[in-house]
Amino acid sequence: MELKRTLQMLFKLEDGLVIETVLIPCERGRNTVCISSQVGCAMNCQFCYTGRMGLKRNLSTSEIVEQAVLARRLLSSEVGPISNVVFMGMGEPLHNIENVLKAADILVDEQGLHFSPRKVTVSTSGLVPQLKRFLRESNCALAVSLNATTDEVRSWIMPINRKFNLNLLLGTLREELQSKHKYKVLFEYVMLAGVNDSVEDAKRLIDLVQGIPCKINLITFNPHSGSFFKPTKKEKIIEFRDILAEAGCVVLFRWSRGNDQMAACGQLGKPGEIQAPVLQVPSQFQAVLEAAA
Ligand SMILES: *[C@@H]1O[C@H](CO)[C@@H](O)[C@H](O)[C@H]1NC(C)=O
Ligand SMILES: *[C@@H]1O[C@H](CO)[C@@H](O)[C@H](O)[C@H]1NC(C)=O
Ligand SMILES: CC(=O)N[C@H]1CO[C@H](CO)[C@@H](O)[C@@H]1O
Ligand code: SF4
């Protein structure tokens, strides 16, 4: 089946700021719209364009919902029905939790857009208190960007980890999911050559997610200019996947354009005039990154 192109929409808001919404056509007519929740982002993940902009403001509930409405209205005729919504565009959705909870409700409400709650996924870098609240108040799906298996690496590439570390994050999920029936969290793990893709990382990952009903999504890193990370080679990702699968994890990895496009979804926006600081590279990784450069 022919893979269609990703469609990127730019929306100018009333105050002149611009946000991006991406439509990702998938096989079998399962089109996904990737929506933004903030203008910019305060989380400063080291791989992410949006993070480099810093946070400009939260989007309102209607600005969030409108992205899905407009994608449906403008694009359904070209690509077919839109079945999935992911909050993986600009911003940390749980940093704007009030409006995101309201928007998610409207997306799944019969009187609203009537998406299935399992097909509306809110993605977070790991804001623990808000994540708890989200799980208690919403039935929509949750994706957590893990991206590393040690606090040392995670605190570097995702500075939010300095506040809410892996133990706290995973312990909270383990606890909260006990009372959610048939609910699985999706862990996103972007494969970065030499940074988080070793056999030891795979083994640590198995231990970390122990007791948490989950799926693990391995994502190929989409290199962009200004990034010092390199993608992990396919064979190595397959090896990593197989280690997880053999241990009984549900692990997803598709080597396809769709995969790249999903990764691209987290890297919207161009670095603006306000630039968040690039963090000091931990010394043991300097050689890896220099070799990759
Ligand atoms: C965004 O919304 C959250 C609550 O959902 C609030 O705590 C925060 O201060 C808001 N941020 C900005 C920049 O307005
Ligand atoms: C971390 O995870 C998200 C996917 O949920 C992704 O957008 C981001 O690029 C990842 N990157 C790194 C380097 O950790
Ligand atoms: C935290 C950690 O140990 N990360 C590893 C990620 O993968 C590279 C090699 O692929 C290792 O060298 C790192 O130690
Ligand atoms: S990856 Fe997500 S949470 Fe991290 S800086 Fe980018 S937009 Fe923010």
Q: How many helices does DSSP assign?
A: 10
Number of strands: 11
Contiguous runs where pLDDT drops below 50 for at least 5 residues: 269-274
> Could you name the CATH class?
Alpha Beta
**Average pLDDT number:** 86
Name the beta content range: 15-25%
Structurally, the number of domains stands at 1
Secondary-structure class? alpha/beta
Question: Which strand order do you get reading across the main beta sheet?
Answer: 1-2-3-6-7-8-9-10-11
Report the CATH topology name: TIM Barrel
**CATH architectural name:** Alpha-Beta Barrel
Corresponding CATH superfamily: Aldolase class I
Domain Radical SAM core: 27-260
GO molecular function: 4 iron, 4 sulfur cluster binding; metal ion binding; methyltransferase activity
Protein name: Radical SAM core domain-containing protein
Main location: cytoplasm
Structure described in brief:
By secondary structure, the protein is α/β, with parallel strands linked by helices. It has helices spanning 49-53, 61-79, 97-108, 128-137, 151-157, 166-177, 199-208, 234-246, 257-265, 283-292, and strands at residues 7-12, 18-24, 31-34, 38-40, 55-58, 82-87, 120-124, 141-145, 185-191, 214-220, 250-252.
